[in-house]
Amino acid sequence: MSKDSPDPTILKAREIFKASGKTLDELGVAMGAESGTARRAAWQLLNKVGDPRISSLRKFCEAMGITLEEL
Description:
0% strand
């Protein structure tokens, strides 16, 4: 994986998010972001290249109703 390529875990998260039918706002709020910054928080997780924070991945999994192992 090159430094500019998304982490494979993020690629999987994008698939799960797309299949969920949720909006970025809904995802961000479910991950605990304030309503005014929810869209940006979710977008940053799904579009960030490099290593995602484990705490962000846990919040994503909780919001999607999956386990970290499933991700």
